[in-house]
Design a protein that fits this description.
336 residues; 10 strands; ten-stranded mixed β-sheet; alpha/beta
Amino acid sequence: MLPAISIIIPIYNAESYLEACITSVLNQTFTDFELILVNDGSSDQSESICRRFATEDNRVVCVSKPNGGSSSAKNKGMEIARGKFIEFVDADDTIDRDYTENLWKGTEDPQVDLCVGNMAFCKITQNAVERREMTVHPGYFSLQEWLEFYPEYMPRAIFGSPCNKLYKKDIIQKFRLRFDERLKNNEDTHFNYAYIEKCRKIYASEKSFYNYMDYGKASASKGYIPGIFDVYLSTYQKAVQFLTDTGVYAENKAFSQRYFIDLVIGALNGIVVGSSDRFSKKMKDIKQIVTHPDVKNALTGYQGAAAKKKLVVFLMRKQACWLLYLLFSLNRFKKT
């Protein structure tokens, strides 16, 4: 008999956190699932941990592959998933005991194509856990109704993350949806744009949380990422297309432009203070960014920001590359 849900965990060198993650999944009150552990070329003890759990619970499926990144591991998991629905959990995170059960409740309505849950961001220190809860508006929504929350959900990872969602496998297969393995960042958001526009109804759970655990370790989301502007640009273009296709771009235009420019500011800061490139290369990259047509267009509608950010936006509009470089260098400017 096929499982109702395939829960996929992409794994790379996660031995310190993996046991807690897998245990939280296997202890779910909802039990009709298979757990697919995709070892993405780990060099630590992650694979042996996976094998041990597989011998202890017949719901666990272990897959090992050469390292190809998180998107590659997620895609591999989807290829072998047998469940009607697919859920993702990152190897260093946990889920509340009734999390999957509360997501599953939404599938009682056959029109529901996506179930969404709450997220808690847990920063772990030596002495305490700092927890910030990001909650959804509970209930059943048409796609148009749910997108009314887009400006609220997008900055809080409710929209972009794949880990607080239950996807219908039929939709993934019908439209051949995959995580883009070429992207260095934002691949999850790209996947969600492609999937969500196909949804008829969306269910949001009011109970329990997906726990995003921040142990202070280095990750792909921290530090300077070469070429990140190109990723932000493609994501912004994807957002504009998605919002246009779903008929809600007009009411989300100002937010989308502001959100994009905030990301661009982060990219500029990374070039100045994080890149090891020569000064001439940094200046060239800054100029290419501030003169890009999409950036110039988004700047026209940018409003509302702290004083320092307003100054950066002013200099971007003036394409004052030297002054931008100086400002970032002196202030180690960060997004606020």
